[in-house]
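Exercise 3.2. Students should predict the tertiary structure of the chain below and write it as C-alpha cells, then compare their answer with the key that follows.

Predict this chain's 3D structure.
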Amino acid sequence: MGFISSLLGKLRKDKTNNLPVEYKLVLDFNKDFSDLLKKDEFLARSDYKHLIEQYKDIYVFFNSCQTAKTLQYYCKQNKVDEKTIDYFLHSYKDIENLQIGSTIINGHNENYIAFHLKTEKPYLDSILQEIDPKIILDEEQRRVILSDEDYSLVIAGAGAGKTTTVAAKVRYLVEKKHIDPKQILVISFTNKAVGELKERINEGLKIQCPITTFHSAGYAILRKQDVEKRNIVSDGFLFKTVSDYLVGNILEQPELVDKLIMFFGSYFDAPYEGNDLNLFFNYVSKADFSTWKSNVNEYNEQIIDRRTNKAITITNESLRSIQEVRIANFLYLNNIDYVYEEPYQYHILKAKKPYTPDFCIRQGDKIAYIEHFGITEDGHHSFYSSDELLKYKKEINDKIALHRKHGTTLIYTFSKYNDGRDLLEHLKEQLETNGFKLQPRSSQEVFEKLVNTEENKYILKLVKLICVFINNFKTNGYVLEDFSRFERMTSNVRTKLFLDVCQACYHEYQKKLREINAIDFQDMINDSARILREKAVAKEALDFKYIIVDEYQDISRQRFDLTKELSNLCSAKIIAVGDDWQSIYAFSGSDITLFTHFCSIMGYGQELKITKTYRNAQEVIDIAGNFIQKNDSQIKKSLISPKHIQKPVIIETYSEDFDRKQFQGKGGKYYQLGKQLETVIGQILKKNQEEGKGANSPILLIGRYGFDANHLCFSNDFVYDEQNNKIFSKKYRNAKLEFLTAHSSKGLGYDNVVIVNARNEMYGFPSKVDNDPVMQYVVKDDKTIDYAEERRLFYVAMTRTKNRVYIITPQQHPSEFILELIKDYPNTLVIGQIEKDNPTNVGAIKKCPICGYPLQLKWKKNYGLKLWICTNEPEVCGFMTNDLKGGDMSIQKCPKCRDGYLIVKPGTTEPILGCTNYKHDKTGCDCLMSREYYKRWLTNGYEEDLSIDKPSYSQSEIKEMPKIIPQKSKPIIERKPIRVHTTSVEEKYIEKDGFAVIVDDDGELITDMKLLRQLRGLRIKLMKENNCQAYNIIGNKGLVSLATYKPETKEEFIGLKGLGESTYSSFGKAFIDEIREYNRFGHSE
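Answer key:
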C-alpha cells in the first residue's frame, strides 16, 4: 500500500463535493472524451492526443490500482463509481498508442463517413460537374474526401482517378470545411503534373489554391529569407565546373592528381565482388578491359588478316580481366615495356595452340614473362568446382615447370594473397627481385597525356559519375561532412579514392556557386527546409492547413524533409497521394520506403486505397497486379475494373537466327524487329475496325531506353521524327504512332500499347545495367527482389493501355519478365516460338559452348584473326572460334602445315575446320577436319616434337581423315553501316504560301496535304474574324505539324514541337475540332 499512498498524497490537494481530485480528473476526461465523440467531425489523432498527455498521471495511478487489485477498495473508501473509472481506463488505453490508433475513434469515424456518404450524396455526385459532368466518384474516392487524418496516405492504383480525387478533395475542404483556398498547398514533381492540377482546380473549379512544384515551393520560401535574388543554375553548370576542375585546376594539387592516377590506373572500373555467376557474366560482357597504353594513344599494332591478307591497324589494347589491366597499367606507369600475349619462344610438346603468357616484359637485355592466375594464393575460387581447381593448379605447375626447363624467367601473381596485401605489391617485389627497375612516370606527364587524348574517355566517364553522385548527394540532403562519414564506413580502396576526388569536386562546385551568387535545384529545397527548421520564416507568412503531395511515390529525402518541416511549422495536415507500384525514380533520388513506411515514419497515419481503375481492363490489371505483387514489400491491393477484354496480353516473337547479309540496307539485325512491329500494327488496326473503335486511335510504342526508337527505325519500314517522338510506318501511313520510354510514359493512357524491347540482355527489359558501387551511398537501391525497380517499370509500361498490351520479344532470348508472364498467366497469348533454354546465346551474351562463360569478340594478333574468345581463365577453358556456327570446335594449330590455323568453315552438310593457308585458287594447305574427326584428334597425339631439348613421343594410330569438299568460299562483303531512317522536309506550295512539309527518307509525303489545305482555310477564316496576321494564329510550321500528326486532344496538341499552351488557349480548340471532323469524314485510306 506504500506506493498507492504515495500517489494519493501527490494527487489529493483538496476535495470538491467530497470527491477526490484524481476522481474529478477522471470525470473531466470522460466528459472531454464524450464531447469529442459527439462532434459531427472526422476525428484526427491531433484532436485527442492532448488528452493522452494531460491525463497520463491519472491513468498511471488508477491502472496501478487495478493491477494491484485495490481499485475496488479505493472506490468503496471514497464512495465513487468504479464503472466510471473502468470507462476511463478503457478509453485512455484505447487512445494511448497514436501509432496503432483508437478502435473507439475509428468506430466514430466510420459512422461519420457512412452518415455523410448518405447525407452528402447529392453534393458528392456533382462535386466535379464543372470539370466533366460524366465524372461520378466511387465510394473509395468519397471516403478519401470525407477522411481528415493528420497524415493520410492515399494509395491509388494506375488509372484510378488520382488527380480527380485530389481536385474533389480540395473543393470539399473549401466548400464544406470552409478552408481558405490559400491555406491549401498542392505540390507535385513536374510542370506537366502541376499544369494538369491547375487545369482541374484553378481553372475548372475556380479555386485559387497554390499549386506548385517542389522547386518552386522551395524557391518561394528562400525569397522570403534572401535579401537579394540568387541565380539558378542548371545541371550543365555542375558538369562544366567538374570537367574544368579535373582537366585544369586539379594540377595545382599534386596529391589529388596522384589519387586520380591511381584511380584511373587500378580502380577506374569497379571489379565484380559478388558470388552470383550470372551477375559476373553480365559484368564481364559489358566491362571495358582496355589499358592506359591504348587510352593515351600509345598502342598501335599492325595485324595481317589471314583471310584477306590486308593490314589491320589495332589501336585498342583490350585484355581479359580487370586484374590484368591493373598489371598492364602498373607496368606502363613504371616505364617497363610489355607485350600482351606474345607467343612463347619455344615449341611446346603436344600443344595444339601457341602458348602465350599474359605478358612478356623487357628492360635492357632483361626479358621475363608474367602470368596472372585468377585464383587465390591458397588455391580457391568461388566459381570453380574442385575438379576445375585441380585442373587449374596442374596448369600452373606445368607452366612453372616449363619455364624452369627452358631457363626463362617467370613472374606470377594471384588474385588474392594470404598476407592480405595487394597483388601489385607482390608484383613490385618480384620485379625488383629479378632486376627490373621501376622508373615511375611523373603524374603530371601521365595526366596531361590522358586529358589531351581525343576521346578523353577517363575524364568524361569520371565527370559523369561525379555529377550523378553530387546531384544525388544533395538530393539526400547531405553536407560536406558526410564525405568523411562515408569514408569511415568503408575499407574499399577504390571507394575511398573516389570519395576523396568527389569531395574536392563538390567543394569546388559549392565555391563556384557562391562566387556567382547562385543556387542549384537541390539547394532550393535543402535551404528552404533548413530555413523552416530554424523557424527563420514567420509562422503567419506560411499559414497552410493542408499540404497535398501528388505522385508521392517519387518522394526523395530532401522533398520529404521540406514537406515535414513545412507541416511542423504550420501545423498543417499532410495528404500524400501516389502508388508504390509505380515508384521508378530511384536513380534520381526517390526513396520508396518513404511511401511504404509512411505511417511509421510520420509517427502515425491513415492508409486509404483507391482501387477502381478506369483505364485498364480487369484481365490486364489482374496480370499486371499479380506480376508486381511478386515483390512482397509492395503494398498489397486488388484493383477492380468494370472493363473486360479477351486476349489482354499478346506476346509476339521474331527470330534473330538469320543471315543478316540478305537484309543489307534494310536494317540488318533490326529488320525482323521492324517486320514484327509492322505485323502488330496491322493486327491492332484490324482489331480496332472489328471492335468499332476509331481508326485514328493512337498506338504507344514503349522502349526501355530512348535509343530503342533508333533501333526500330534502323528498319527501312519505319521513319523517326525525333523532335516529336513520332514514328511513321511506311505500310500503315495513317497509323498514329508515338514513341516514349517506359519512364516518360508514366501517367499517360493510350488505346493500345506495344512494348518493343522485351529482350534478355544488358540494355533489355529488365535492364541489367548496374549502378557503380560508389552510388550505394546516395541511391536507395531496392534489393527486396531481383530487378525490383525494373519490375515496377514494366508494370508502368503494361498499365498504359486502355485495351491490350502487345509485347515484342526475340524468340532466342526473351526477357525473364516474358517467361514469367507465359508461365504464370495462362491467358497470355504467345504468337510465335519461345526458346526458353538457349545456353549459348542468353540475353545476347554469347556464351562459350564448353564452359558457359561469356565470349568476347576481338582481334587476336597472334592468329591474325578476329575471334570469339572465352573469358574464362585459359587454364580452365581456352575456347576460341571465328564462327559460332562451329559449336564447340575450337581454333587449333594446323597439324599439316604448322604455321596455319584450323578455323571454322562451311562444309557440305555441317561446319568443318579448315586451314587458314588454303587459298581461293585451291592452292595451299588443304587440311580439313570434320566434327567427328576433330573429337578423336583432340585426345590423340600425332605430331613430331621439333623442340631440340625434348624427346619426341610415340604417335597413336588414328583412322584416315575423311575426304570433305568444303563449300566454295564466298567473297567477303563489306558491310554497310546501318542508319536510322528519319523524316526530312520538302517545300510544297498551296497557292502562294510555301510549306516545309514532312517526307520520309524515300521522299514520300507524310504530311496530309488535303488536311493542310483545310487548316490553312480555317486560319484564313480566323484571321478575318480576329483581324490579325497568320503568325498571330498559327504559323506555317505549326500548320504542317497539325496536318502531319493530327492531334485530337489538348495533350496531343501541346505536345507537338512549337505548339504550346498559349497557342492552344487562343485557337487550339478550333483546329482540333477541324481535325476531328476531317478524321471522321474528310479523308479516305
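Discussion points: Confidence is low (pLDDT under 50) at residues 1-16, 839-843, 941-962. Residues 646 and 880 are 49 Å apart (CA to CA).
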